[in-house]
Amino acid sequence: MSSTSRNETNKANAQHSTGPKTAAGKQRSSLNALRHGLTGQLVVMPTEDLHAYQLHLTSFTDEYRPVGATEANLVQALADTSWRLNRVAALETNLLTLGMTNASSFVDGPAQVQDAMSIVASLESQSKALSNLSLHSQRLSRQFERTVAQLRELQKTRLTQEKVDLSDLLDVIEMQEDKGETYDPSADGFVFSESQIEAAVRTRNRERLIEEAYEHFVDAAA
Predict the structure, then answer these.
(1) Sign of CA dihedral 120, 126, 132, 133
(2) What is the pTM of this model?
(3) Per the structure, how many domains does the chain have?
(4) Is the pLDDT of residue 102 over 60?
């Protein structure tokens, strides 16, 4: 099939696929953008701001800078759990507001008394819902703390191993330079970028200068 014929066929097929037409289909389609990219779980409710969630997720990614799929999943879990905790707080406020709106038994008292009694009445009328929200919040908080601990331990292990691997790489580079030979780190499985290697070289040179200066000071003082 020629390129022209293929393009004409694609255009014709496109006319038969114009997206969902029913209200239910359009609603399902709109929810696709709100789903978790890895599990398909609905994270952002239709009444919530998807852009705000994306900024929320970006803030966690910028803070933890995950490397690899496992760390990325943990950071995603942290962001989602935090988002749900914020939702619980908002729901709690909404419940109290609803209760206060419905509490009209103290309209003749002073404003401060009205406010205080409205809050009491709200707590009483929404006590079961608030209790359920509290339990849900506690569970999410424990989940958040466990995920943070798991992520930090994983990153600590990774960074420790990276430090060892980078030190080994610098040793090999120095040996090759002493022989007047060039060295390709990727040939031995090293995956560090040039900027990482250059930064490590500067750090090692600085540490050696400090060590030499200290030894010189000790010798001079002896």
Answers:
(1) negative
(2) 0.60
(3) 1
(4) no
